[in-house]
Amino acid sequence: MNAVADSHRTVNPAANGQPLLQLRDVTKRFGGLTAVNKVNLDIHQGDLHFLIGPNGAGKSTLFKTIVGYHKPDSGQVIYKGNDISFVEPFLRARMGISIKFQTPSVYPDLTVFQNMVVALNRRRTAVDNVRQEILDRLDAVGLHGIENMAAGQISHGQRQWLEIGLALAVDPELLLLDEPNAGMTPDETARTAEIIRRLNKDGMTIIVIAHDMEFVRMLEPRITVLHLGRVFTQGQLCEIERNEEVQQIYLGKK
Amino acid sequence: MRLGGLEELPGCQDSSRLGATDVQLFGEIFGAIYLYLDSMAFLFLSAVGLIIILGMMGITNLAHGEFMMLGAYTAVLATRAGLPFPISVVFASLMVGLFGMVLERLIIRRFYGNLLQSLVATWGISLIISQGMLVLMGPSLQTIRMPLGGITVAGKAYAAYRLLLAVIAIGLLIVMWYVFHRTKFGMRARGAMQNAEIAEAMGINTSRMYQFTFGIGSALAGFAGALYAPTTVLAPLYGASFLAPAFVTVVVSGGANVIQGALITSVLLGIIEGTSSRLYGTFIGRMALLAAAMVILRVLPTGISGYLETRGERAR
Amino acid sequence: MNKTSRFSNFLNTVNGPFSIGRSAVFWVAFLIVTGYLYFFPRFASRYDVINLTYFMSWTFVAMGLSLIWGCGNILSFGQMAFVGIGGYVYGIIAINTLDAVGNTIPALLGGIIIPFLVAALLGYFVFYGRVSGVYVSIMTLVFTLVLETFMGQTAGDKWRVGKALLGGYNGMTNIPSINFGSTGLKGASLYYFVLTLMVVTYLLLRYLVNSKYGVGLVATGSNPDRTEVLGYNIRLIQLLAFAIAGGLAGLSGVLYVAWGHYITPSTMGLTNASLPVIWVAVGGRKSMLAAIISTIVLQYFTQYLAVTGSEFALIILGALLLIVVLYMPAGVIPTLANCIGKLGSKRRQEALSNSQSRRGVGA
Predict the structure, then answer these.
(1) Is residue A2 one of the residues assigned to a domain?
(2) Which residue of C has its CA nearest to A119?
(3) Percent of chain A with pLDDT over 90
(4) Looking at CA atoms only, how far is residue A31 from chain B in angstroms?
(5) Which residue of chain C is at minimal alpha-carbon distance from B62?
(6) Which of C13, C100, C144, C339 would bridge C78 by S-S if both were Cys, CB 3.0 to 4.6 A apart?
(7) Which residue in B124, B244, B290 is closest to C321 by CB distance?
(8) Would you call B314 and A56 a contact, using CB atoms and an 8 Å cutoff?
(9) CB distance from A108 to chain B under 8 Å?
(10) Hey, is the C-beta of C198 within 8 angstroms of any chain A C-beta?
């Protein structure tokens, strides 16, 4: 995919070994409940990282804090060396952070094609054949031939992929996927894993929230386990799988 | 619609008598309390029906003013026909409540998923009712005299009826609190408020509950309309003068916590409105209300009750 | 660039993925109707011309509402507030400056710019305050009601701006016609002015909706959260649309007072506030053309009812609104167009299968 010139993008930090994203003691409270508790996390460019943990562990809240819907009560969100803890979501998007929400969030009354038009609309540079590019991008996320259907009419799995397509259309440097395989059949899950693998191989930095260990196993990423808002443990897939305490906090879930 | 009927008794305007300062001070304080109670009662009574419907169903009833008008007209006509005024008020409330339930069943319930469309629908209903009343009953209806007459405090006359309204407002608040927090119905209602699906799964008939709630909200609107009927001119657009204060109160209160929100908002806005109208006149009071609402919403976008809810124990 | 490609470039700016009605048939019909309207004063009575001018003056507030509601999903019940502000501002400036300046251009500009700015300010509080959905609509309604109350209290001599008396509930009178330096516009000249403004505004708005901004507005209306994380500044987008709608409403106000020479606070009252919503909802909020047609037709209908002595005009409008929202939520014109389209394709299918069976093709 062509990199898009955007005035908010800054210099590539990988040149000096800095992590792309750093979470420093990030804490977020809602009334009496601490949803995210002193989370520390480093994501380097090109990483494929999974966030797992039981329900209520704070994974989605953490994503929302990275994207900007929540501002941390304490701690910092540092992106490319800049503290973006209080930057508005739309500015973070322009800096290269893109998210796919847990419940598929597309434009239901617009066609699939029009959905992509919206995502590509903000570009500065003109492209010769937008129509072909949109069809190529849809192909890349596994959507063929449905570009004239209303996005509200396509299947749940297709909507997930469309949203990934939208998130990719802004050519992000950091892609956040919140349960990208939620509600998908095993076949669709495998296809989603393939899409993620390919994206990561091409250099995209991706953080994925997942519930389903089968899905995690398809990709063999580095994993952070969250529990009750805290980082419980981190490590490679094989280490996490062997960790009995992790199994316990899942209470017998796979 | 004038708030705060502070009237001066002719000939008793000299406050320079020796030894009168204590009495004068008491009079000032009483006057101020009267004004604030009047404002708060007005806001609370106008808005409470709306807040209940909003809190329970997420629906904003733009026909609220018309429901108040129906309550006022019914009460006045019933009183003219011979019923004692208090009975007429209750009767009017029941009638409007029933009307609301019918309306809910026929029209309102089709818009539960779509809040903006429900606004437009209730707007259409409000137009039909108010213009229909204009055709049916003409441009105005002669109202009845304010009951209870006046009382005199420190040389100034006050309408005892308005103090009664304040007492009624407080009483209503207490009754509501009791029903919501101490009865089975109230607990079921609160359950349905928090999460309709779970409530339904637990055997609560949510559609019956919604119909009943809309009925109660309408009845309260009719109640307020009937109560304020003796205080002003009756016309088909009678409800219009309540609309802006009621909506401002509802928006600032938010829907998350009906009782606390309504109470705190009425007190807060009542103080603001009362002070501004005391100092500068009624319409400045209205403007102050609107300005205050803007500012409060800017700071607390989910309203006062929304703010209270997130400050309490809430998992996200 | 030769003529055809320049024309198609123009077409591309007003035809886009988000416009309704962009076929060649549409534009031909558009040209025909516009031509008819331009010839109208030649054969119509003076009364009809004046009437149609009045009806067309209200299309601007309807177009503005169609922009914010149809595209941006912002339902404002308060557009008449900006109509009122536009009318009063025009009156104030015109009464005070006509003699000095010799024309009403400052008044005309003021009557559009001031409502635009007021709408921007209101929009700031509403959108940057993260007020959402239903509450936006309520706040706009409250705004117009409070404004009406305020203007109603402006009776008496101390309520004046320069030479212009605000007039309380009786309103401001003796407002001069629009004047570009010679005589005031009235009758046919005012008609042409309003018609031209209407056509130009319509085309400009189509251009806006199909521009990058327009796509952002439609996206924001459809799914603000998704749009925000695609990098759009959704609050600014909404604010701008709201301000533009306010300016357009102000234009309606200006044309209204230039036509009738007076304005009262009741313009901003409860009953009038419902009118733009009814016009746009009944016509079809997503189509600006439907909003224009609906405004003119419903205004004509209301006037016809009033003239024939019926008091039921507003009741019927209220009922119409209710019926449309219940059974034709997209609006009358798009629903009709859909039906005609489906009928058309059914007939084409029938004709096709008829000719197939005649030729012995198919089972």
Answers:
(1) no
(2) C230
(3) 35
(4) 4
(5) C138
(6) C144
(7) B124
(8) no
(9) no
(10) no
User: Residues of B numbered 296-315 whose beta carbons fall under 8 angstroms of chain A's beta carbons: which are they?
Assistant: 310-315
Q: Where are the beta strands (DSSP E) in C150-212?
A: 160-161, 164-165
Touching B (3+ Cβ pairs <8 A), the chains are: A, C
Asked if residue B12 is part of any domain, the answer here is no
Q: Is C326 on the interface with A (CB under 8 A)?
A: no
Which tokens in the block code for residue C6? Answer: 């320049």
DSSP assignment string, C87-113: HHHHHHHHHHHHHHHSSSHHHHHHHHH
Distance of CA B232 to the CA centre of its chain: 16
The answer to whether residue B4 sits within a structural domain is: no
C130 touches chain A (CB under 8 A): no
Alpha-carbon distance C331 to nearest alpha carbon in chain A (angstroms): 16
| pTM for the model | 0.86
Q: How far apart are CA A147 and CA A135, in angstroms?
A: 8
Cβ-defined contact of C218 to A110 (cutoff 8 Å): yes
Asked whether residue C6 carries a pLDDT value surpassing 60, the answer given is no
Average pLDDT over residues C336-361: 68
ipTM over 0.85: yes
pLDDT of residue B218: 95
Dist. CA B166–CA C344, nearest whole Å: 65
Domain CATH code at residue B228: 1.10.3470
Token reading at B103: 């309306």
The mean per-residue pLDDT over the stretch C252-262 comes to: 93
| Higher pLDDT among residues B211 and B295, named by residue | B211
| Number of Cα atoms under 13 Å in the Cβ half of residue B32 | 10
Interface-testing mutation among B54, B128, B250, B284, with chain C (most C C-beta atoms within 10 A): B128
3-state class (DSSP) for residue C361: coil
Cβ-contact C281, B119 below 8 angstroms:
no
Determine the residue of chain A that is closest to C232 in CA distance.
A90
Bridge partners of C179? Answer: C184
Q: C-alpha B160: how far from its chain's center?
A: 19
Yes or no: say if A36 and A65 are a contact pair by the CB < 8 Å rule. yes
Dihedral sign (CA C133, B41, B144, C266):
negative
Q: How many helices (H) and strands (E) does chain B have?
A: 12, 3
What's the CA gap between B58 and A117, in Å, rounded? 34
- Does residue B17 form part of some domain? no
For chain B positions 234-263, those within 8 Å of chain A (CB to CB) are: none
The minimum CA-CA distance between A130 and chain B, rounded to whole Å, is 35
pLDDT tens sequence across B237-294: 888 888 888 888 888 887 677 788 888 888 888 888 888 877 777 777 878 888 888 7
**Which pLDDT does position B313 carry in this prediction?**
45
The 3-state secondary structure of B10-67, one letter per residue: CCCCCCCCCCCHHHHHHHHHHHHHHHHHHHHHHHHHHHHHHHHHHHHHCCCCCCHHHH
CB-CB under 8 Å, B312 with A32: yes
More confident residue, A51 or C153: A51
Q: Is A99 on the interface with C (CB under 8 A)?
A: yes
Q: Is residue A34 part of a domain?
A: yes
What are C259's two structure tokens?
């036509």
Residue A5 resides in a domain: no
Q: What is the pLDDT of residues A129-139, one digit of tens each?
A: 888 888 999 98
Residues of C in contact with B130 (CB under 8 A): 271
Q: What is the pLDDT of residue A8?
A: 46
B283 touches chain C (CB under 8 A): yes
Domains contained in chain B, number: 1
Whether residue B301 is contained in a domain is answered as yes
Contact C139 B110 (CB under 8 A): no
Q: What is the C-alpha to C-alpha distance for residues A211 and A203, in angstroms, rounded to an integer?
A: 24
Contact B16, B246 (CB under 8 A): no
pLDDT for the residue numbered C214: 92
Which of A15, A82, A45 is CA-nearest to residue A173? A45
Contact check, Cβ <8 Å, A89/C229:
yes
Domain that holds residue A66: 17-249
Strands (E), C162-257: 164-165
